[in-house]
């Protein structure tokens, strides 16, 4: 398979220092709203979460952003999953939003910590009932013999909790990623992409730098 000629030009927009917000959360919010409103992205909240386990082995997977503010970015998962095990061993993580239809990418690096159980409970019970039952049925990342076994467990729980509130599993909840670093990437003509980073300083201020493509 030859991929040498698989390429396209990036001419949609330019990113200039003069238009950047001083606050990276505000800059992210601006891009995020544009991504949602563009109608070009099926899952604008989807991002790649990178973690590293105790042996130094990196892992990546797609998760969904459920909230963000000045304190960080929130997603939910099973704490007993591979990502949960990795974060327990090493709380340094990285996020990557690939909004390729807009010729934009955002990289974020920081530390992950669990949100309160109250926050997790509130979100869990706001989910569709089928999603709640799915979370209860699955021991995420653990081996299973067949899909039939998983679906049987799901249907048993559906019957068990008919007419009742589905309990949130003890091993399920949210993480908040507190950023220390952002990079905003805009595809550029001649492959001269625009890249700007925000790095948090010890005093809490953000330093903005342009990087060469």
Automatic annotation (TrEMBL):
Ranges of residues in domain Pyridoxine 5'-phosphate oxidase dimerisation C-terminal: 172-213
Pfam families (UniProt xref): PNP_phzG_C (PF10590), PNPOx_N (PF01243)
Pathway, per record: Cofactor metabolism; pyridoxal 5'-phosphate salvage; pyridoxal 5'-phosphate from pyridoxine 5'-phosphate: step 1/1; Cofactor metabolism; pyridoxal 5'-phosphate salvage; pyridoxal 5'-phosphate from pyridoxamine 5'-phosphate: step 1/1
Keyword Oxidoreductase (UniProt): yes
Gene3D superfamilies linked to this entry: Electron Transport, Fmn-binding Protein, Chain A (2.30.110.10)
Amino acids binding substrate: 7-10, 66, 123, 127, 131, 191-193
Segments forming domain Pyridoxamine 5'-phosphate oxidase N-terminal: 40-156
Cofactor mode of binding and number, as noted: Binds 1 FMN per subunit.
Documented EC number(s): 1.4.3.5
Family according to the record: Belongs to the pyridoxamine 5'-phosphate oxidase family.
Complexes and interactors: Homodimer.
Protein's name according to its UniProt entry: Pyridoxine/pyridoxamine 5'-phosphate oxidase
């Amino acid at each position: 398979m030859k991929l040498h000629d698989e390429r396209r030009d990036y001419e949609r927009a330019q990113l200039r220092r003069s238009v950047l917000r001083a606050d990276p959360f505000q800059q992210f919010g601006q891009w995020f709203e544009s991504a949602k409103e563009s109608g070009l992205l099926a899952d604008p909240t989807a991002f790649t979460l990178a973690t590293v386990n105790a042996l130094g082995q990196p892992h990546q997977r797609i998760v969904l952003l459920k909230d963000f503010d000045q304190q960080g970015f929130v997603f939910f998962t099973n704490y007993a999953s591979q990502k949960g095990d990795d974060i327990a061993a090493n709380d340094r993580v990285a996020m990557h939003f690939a909004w390729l239809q807009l010729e934009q990418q955002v990289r974020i690096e920081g530390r992950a910590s669990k949100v309160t159980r109250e926050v997790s409970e509130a979100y869990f019970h706001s989910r569709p009932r089928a999603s709640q039952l799915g979370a209860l049925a699955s021991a995420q990342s653990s081996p299973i013999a067949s899909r039939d076994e998983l679906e049987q467990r799901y249907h048993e729980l559906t019957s068990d909790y008919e007419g009742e509130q589905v309990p949130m599993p003890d091993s399920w909840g949210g993480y908040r990623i507190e950023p220390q670093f952002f990079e905003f990437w805009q595809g550029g003509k001649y492959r001269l992409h625009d890249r700007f980073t925000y790095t948090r300083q010890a005093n809490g201020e953000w330093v903005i730098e342009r990087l060469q493509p």
